[in-house]
Amino acid sequence: MKNREKQEKNRRRDSVLLWLVAALIVLIIAAVVVLCVVQMGRDDSEPPQMESTQTESTREMEPLRFDIPGFHRIDEAELPLLNGPLQVTAVGRYTGPFVEDGTDEEVTDVLALIVENNGDNWVEYAELTMDCGGQTARFVLSVLPAGSSALLMETSRMTYAPGTAYCIKGEAKVAELSDRVMDFSGEFVLYPDDGVINVENVSAMDHPETVAVCYKNYRYGLYIGGICYRARFENGIAAGEIAQSIQSHYTNEDSVILFMSYEK
C-alpha cells in the first residue's frame, strides 16, 4: 500500500513538473513573438536613414541676407560650388522692372540669381547657366566689385515653372576687370544728376579717344541687375571742355559711379 502511494505521488510530481516545463516553453515562445512584433512595428514607424546626397561639390542655400521686393527664393534649387570668385547664394523668381536689356519693362516670375564676388579682384564679365528641367537659363554679369553681390535676371526672361528641377551648372565664365581708372580726379570732374552725367576735362591735354563713365544701380544692399551702364563720349573731351550724356537710368539716390575708362 505504501509503495503504491509513493508511486502515485511520484507520478503526480512528474506530471506537475511536465506541466511547469510546458508552461515555461509557452511563455518563452510568447515572449519571442511579442519582441518580434514590437521590432516590426519600430521598423515600420521609423523610416530608413538615407545617406546624405550633399557632397563636397554642393551646398545648401544660405539665409537670405537681402530683402528685395518681388524676389522669392526657390529653396529646392541645387547650388554647386563654382570655380572662381563668384558664388550663387540664392536662386529665385523675380517680379518687377526687367533691367538687363535697359527697357525696365515689368515682368512676372522671371528666374533670378543672387551672386556674390568672393574674390580679391573686380569681375568685369561673367556668364552663368542653370539647368531648368532640360532647358538652359543664362545669366550675364557686367562688372561686380570684390566683396559685393548682385541680383541677376535671366537674359531671355525665362519664367519660373513649379515642379521644375533647378540646378546651377558648376562652370562659370569669368573675366577680371583690368581696364579701369579708379582715381580720375586729376583729369576729369563729374557733375552727375538725375538723368544726366556731365564730365569736365580739367587736365591740360585733350582726350580725343572715347571716354566712358561706368555705373550701376544699387538698392537693398546689392547691385540690381547684371547690367553696367556706360555714359560714352565717343568723340572724346577736349581740355577744359564740359561734355554731357543723357542717362535715363542714373539717379543720385540709387546709382553708384564705379570707374572711368579712357587712355591714360
Structure description:
There is one protein chain. By secondary structure, the chain is of the alpha+beta class. Strands 2, 4, 5, 8, 13, 14, 15 and 17 form an 8-stranded mixed beta sheet that branches. Strand 11 and strand 12 form a beta hairpin.
Keywords:
single chain; 264 residues; alpha+beta; eight-stranded mixed beta sheet; four-stranded antiparallel beta sheet; 1 helix; 17 strands; 17% helix; elongated
Q: Which percent bin holds the helix content?
A: 10-25%
Unreliable spans are: 42-56
- Radius of gyration in whole Å, from Cα? 37 Å
Shape descriptor reads: elongated
Mean pLDDT: 85
N-to-C order of helices and strands:
HEEEEEEEEEEEEEEEEE
Structural class: alpha+beta
Strand percentage lies at 35-45%
Q: With helices defined by DSSP (H or I, 4 residues minimum), what is the helix count?
A: 1
Number of strands: 17
Determine the N-to-C terminus distance: 136 Å
Quaternary structure type? single chain
Largest sheet: 8 strands, mixed
At a glance:
By secondary structure, this protein is an alpha+beta fold. It is built from one helix and 17 strands. The chain has one helix at residues 2-45; strands spanning 58-59, 71-73, 79-80, 86-98, 105-117, 123-132, 135-144, 149-153, 166-168, 173-176, 188-193, 196-201, 211-219, 222-224, 229-233, 242-246, 255-261.
What is the topological layout?
Elements: H1 2-45, E1 58-59, E2 71-73, E3 79-80, E4 86-98, E5 105-117, E6 123-132, E7 135-144, E8 149-153, E9 166-168, E10 173-176, E11 188-193, E12 196-201, E13 211-219, E14 222-224, E15 229-233, E16 242-246, E17 255-261
Parallel strand pairs: 8-14
Antiparallel strand pairs: 1-3, 2-4, 4-5, 5-8, 6-7, 6-9, 6-10, 11-12, 12-16, 13-14, 13-15, 13-17
